[in-house]
What we know:
Number of strands: 9
Radius of gyration: 16 Å
Shape: globular
Structural class: alpha/beta
CATH topology of the domain at 12-134: Rossmann fold
Oligomer: single chain
Low-confidence stretches: 143-151
Largest sheet: 9 strands, mixed
CATH superfamily of the domain at 12-134: P-loop containing nucleotide triphosphate hydrolases
CATH class of the domain at 12-134: Alpha Beta
Amino acid sequence: MSLPFSSVYPLKRSRAHEVCGEGGLVFAAISAGQATGAVVWVSEEWRPTVNPEGLSPYCDPGKLLITRAGSQLDVLASAETALRSGAAGLVVAEVSGAIGLTEGRRLQLAAEAGRTTGLLIIPEGAGSNAAETRWRCDGLSAPHTPCQNSHDSTHWRWSLIKNKIGTLSEWVVRWDAASHRVIVVSKAGG
């Protein structure tokens, strides 16, 4: 049985979620575009800085607050502070290593306290058991269906690989810039 996409996306508020895969940045950018209010984006200093203008197809660059931290521990501490404050609609944290149960639980508690959504961009296999959901996002090299919108043919496979309610699923999606939303692509008839 397939889980309805609308039951898990947009991401549940007051919870911390994770995303991995080559499309993780796009997933985060789309989530930032759908967030209400400011978006805090935290990454380690050695990582390339996300370009707010480069995210403009998905979100308003004016609502992004880009911050840098010296280490993964500092990224997690900054994300926790931002989540707990409740000042942002979404907090995105890019991390380069594994996240322990303690760190993941602290982020969950901070998200609950601040009524804010957290999203960690993680390496494959580096997530915490405390995450509400974990997504794997990968690009599709070929269109999923024969009908294509000529101005937007980028498709991604968004796989829900961890879900605290227990049901896992996957969808092929595309971004519709005109309506500013994620479209689940229908499977071709058999």
